[in-house]
Amino acid sequence: MSADRKALDEAQPELAGGVLPADMLTASASGLDPDITPANALLQVTRVAQARGVPPERIAALVQQQVTPRSLWIFGEPRVNVLELNLALDRAFPK
User: Fold this and answer.
1) Is residue 2 part of a domain?
2) Bridge partners for 68 per DSSP
3) CA-CA to 73 of 20 to 30 Å: which in 1, 6, 7, 84?
4) Number of domain units in the chain
């Protein structure tokens, strides 16, 4: 087990032992990629909901609204821009 996975399992026990999206444990070549997969964003819903004191269903709905589909329906993968999601979270559910 990698050190990254062990740290994640300790920080978020609800994810321990489960299959995770690759981008949850790896970084882009530059480490500055602004996008994550929808699966990665959805795995963080419970933690974000607890931190903001909001029902998880409302956070999950906002994540779904932030998913950018494939370009021209065939190029690339669906993605969530982390900055745009965080701004939307701040607007909808201020701390």
Assistant:
1) no
2) 79
3) 84
4) 1
- On whether residue 9 sits in a domain, the answer given is no
Q: Residue 6: inside a domain, yes or no?
A: no
Alpha-carbon gap, residue 61 to 73, rounded angstroms: 22
Sign of the C-alpha dihedral computed for residues 58, 62, 63 and 64 taken in this order: positive
DSSP state of 29: S
- Tens digits of residue pLDDT in 12-58: 787 777 887 888 777 666 666 789 999 999 999 999 999 999 999 99
The residue count of the chain comes to: 95
Q: What is the pTM of this model?
A: 0.79
Nearest in space to 77 (alpha carbons), one of 51, 29, 41: 41
Range(s) of the domain holding residue 73:
28-92
